[in-house]
Design brief:
Layout: H1 2-24, H2 35-40, H3 62-68, H4 72-83, H5 85-175, H6 184-189, H7 205-216, H8 220-227, H9 235-238, E1 247-251, H10 257-264, E2 269-273, H11 276-284, E3 289-291, H12 294-300, E4 306-312, H13 320-333, E5 334-345, H14 350-354, H15 369-378, E6 383-391, H16 403-413, E7 415-423
Helix pairs in contact: 1-3, 5-11, 8-10, 12-13
Length: about 425
C-alpha cells in the first residue's frame, strides 16, 4: 500500500513539473478564428490546415507549486510524514490490538475444538469399551450354555445307559420267563415230559416296524418340515421363561422327529413308546424317551402338570376303549390351557380310506374327523377343532375344470391327514 502511494505521489510531482515548464516557456494557445472567416476560407482539401491544440492545464494550487520545487517538495513530504507519524502509530497500535484480539479468538476456538475432540475421543473409547464388555458377556453366556449342554449331555448319556440296561434286562426276562426253582426238592417232584424238538423262527416286531417306517414314512427332514405346522399351537409354552416351561409328552414318539424339533425350539419334551427299537433309536440321538405304556404313564403324572400331549399317526392303532382312555389320561395330566394334538390319516380322502390307510399292517380302523372332534369334546376338552393337512400336489389334480373333475379332485386328492386339536 505504501508503494502504491509513493508511485501516485511521484506521478503527481511529474505532472506538476510539466505544468510549471509549460508556463515558464511562455507558450500560449492560438486564438479561435471567427466563424465568418471560417466560412470564407476555401473548402478545398489542399488549403485546410489542421492545428493541434494542446490541452489547457488546470491552474496549480500553492501546495502543488511548493511540492514541484526541487528539494523543497521532498522535504515538505517528509515533514508531513513526520507530522502524521503519531497518527500512524496509533493506527498501527489499533491494528496490533485487533490482530491480538483475533489471535485470542483463534486460540479460544482452538481450545474449544481440542476439548470437543477430546470429548468425542473419550465417548468413542467408552462406547468401544461398552461394546467389548457386551461381547465378553455374550462370549461368557455362550460358554456357559456350552457347559450346560455338555453337562446335560453327560446326564442324558448316563440316563440312556441306565434305561438301555433296564430295557435289555426286561427283554431277557420276557424271553426267559421260566427259571429253574431254587429248591432242589421241588425240582425233583416235577419231572418234565420230553418235548419234541421244533424249529422256531424269531420275529422281532419292533425292528420290523422301525425298518417299515424308514421305508414308507419318509425322511426325518420331510417329517420335521411337516410337523412345523403344529408349533404355533404350543405358543403358551414357548412364550414362558425357559425354567417355567411345562413338559410336552409325545405318545408313540417313533423315531423322535417331533422331539428333535421341539428341542430345537427350546421346548422340553419327553417321548413314550412301547417299541424298544424306536426307543433305542431315540436314545442314540440323545433324546429323552421312556419305554412305557403311554396311557399308564399319563395317569401317573401329577394332575395339571403337563403342557401338551401329542401323538402322530398313533390313534388309528388303538382299539376304541384305549382311545377313550388316552383322551381321559391326557385330560388328567394337562394343565389349564394345555392342548392335545393327535394326527391320523384322513378317511375323507377316498384313496387314503380305501387303500393308503392299509399300508401299515398294524392300523386298526380309520377315524372320521367329526368323530375325533366329538370324542375330544365329549371327554371334557372345552375347545376342539380339525386341522386338515397334506393334500396331494397340484400335478395329481385333474385340469378339465368341470364339476365332476372338481369333485374328483376333492374326494381323491384332498387332505391325506388331519389333526384333532383340543384345549383344556
Amino acid at each position: 500500500m505504501a508503494i502504491q502511494k509513493k508511485s501516485e505521489y511521484e506521478e503527481q510531482q511529474l505532472r506538476e513539473k510539466a505544468n510549471v515548464l509549460l508556463q515558464n516557456s511562455g507558450y500560449t494557445a492560438p486564438a479561435a478564428k471567427p466563424a465568418a472567416a471560417t466560412l470564407a476560407e476555401p473548402d478545398t482539401a489542399s488549403e485546410i490546415v489542421t492545428e493541434t491544440n494542446p490541452p489547457q492545464p488546470a491552474p496549480l494550487s500553492l501546495r502543488q507549486r511548493l511540492r514541484a520545487i526541487p528539494g523543497l517538495g521532498y522535504a515538505l513530504s517528509w515533514f508531513k510524514a513526520l507530522l502524521l507519524l503519531p497518527r500512524t502509530r496509533i493506527e498501527i497500535a489499533d491494528l496490533r490490538a485487533q490482530l491480538h484480539h483475533q489471535n485470542l479468538l483463534i486460540a479460544t476456538h482452538k481450545e474449544f475444538t481440542d476439548e470437543h475432540s477430546r470429548r468425542i475421543h473419550q465417548l468413542e473409547s467408552e462406547k468401544l469399551a461398552l461394546r467389548l464388555a457386551q461381547y465378553d458377556a455374550l462370549d461368557i453366556g455362550k460358554r456357559l450354555m456350552e457347559l450346560d449342554r455338555l453337562y446335560i449331555g453327560r446326564q442324558l448319556r448316563s440316563l440312556n445307559l441306565m434305561m438301555r440296561t433296564q430295557l435289555q434286562s426286561g427283554v431277557q426276562h420276557q424271553q426267559n420267563p421260566l427259571q429253574p426253582a431254587d429248591n432242589p426238592a421241588s425240582a425233583t417232584l416235577v419231572s418234565p415230559a420230553p418235548v419234541p424238538a421244533k424249529v422256531t423262527h424269531h420275529f422281532d416286531q419292533d425292528q420290523f416296524y422301525l425298518e417299515f417306517e424308514a421305508l414308507f414314512r419318509g425322511t426325518r427332514e420331510d417329517i420335521k418340515q411337516r410337523l412345523n405346522v403344529y408349533l404355533p399351537y404350543l405358543s403358551h409354552i414357548s412364550k414362558q421363561p425357559r425354567d417355567e416351561r411345562k413338559m410336552v409328552i409325545d405318545v408313540g414318539c417313533g423315531r423322535g422327529e417331533w422331539l428333535e424339533l421341539l428341542d430345537e425350539q427350546g421346548i422340553p419334551a419327553l417321548g413314550v413308546d412301547m417299541n424298544v427299537s424306536m426307543v433305542n433309536a431315540c436314545l442314540d440321538r440323545g433324546l429323552l424317551v421312556r419305554h412305557a405304556d403311554a396311557i399308564a404313564y399319563l395317569r401317573e403324572q401329577p394332575a395339571g402338570s403337563i403342557g401338551a400331549v401329542t401323538g402322530f399317526q398313533i390313534i388309528e392303532h388303538l382299539p376304541f376303549e384305549q382311545l377313550i382312555a388316552l383322551f381321559d389320561a391326557a385330560l388328567h395330566a394337562l394343565c389349564p390351557g394345555g392342548v392335545i394334538i393327535f394326527e391320523t390319516p384322513n378317511p375323507e380322502n377316498l384313496k387314503v380310506g380305501a387303500c393308503n390307510f392299509y399300508f401299515d399292517p398294524t392300523h386298526l380302523n380309520p377315524i372320521v374327523p367329526q368323530v375325533a372332534e366329538f370324542m375330544a369334546r365329549q371327554r371334557g376338552f372345552s375347545q376342539a377343532e380339525i386341522l386338515r393337512l397334506h393334500p396331494y400336489p397340484d400335478d395329481h389334480l385333474l385340469k378339465g375344470g368341470s364339476e365332476v373333475e372338481a369333485l374328483l379332485n376333492k374326494e381323491l386328492f384332498g387332505a391325506q391327514d388331519y389333526a384333532v386339536i383340543g384345549r383344556k
